[in-house]
Model the fold of this input.
Amino acid sequence: MAAAIVVVVGWWVGKPLTPELLAVIGVLLSWSVKMDRSWSRRLADHMAAVRSISARRGVADEDVETIYAVLDEEVGREQRRRKQLPGGRA
Done:
């Protein structure tokens, strides 16, 4: 999507596909592919952890994911509470 935006903006301002513009498009596409791979790897690691925990504990995958969601919510709530306290008190 970002590469298409670069092409459209280049066309709009009257710049043809110059080597500089092609380089920008290449960098954006490279960054996009790297981010996609990173997120896919993280998701696969997360799902593997959920399956491992559910197999070890003998509970359904959905229950493990629900526990993660509840835990994340509680951690966020505690962090917000600590930020609201006067300096140095927990």
The chain is about 80% helix and 0% strand. Residues 46 and 65 are 10 Å apart (CA to CA).
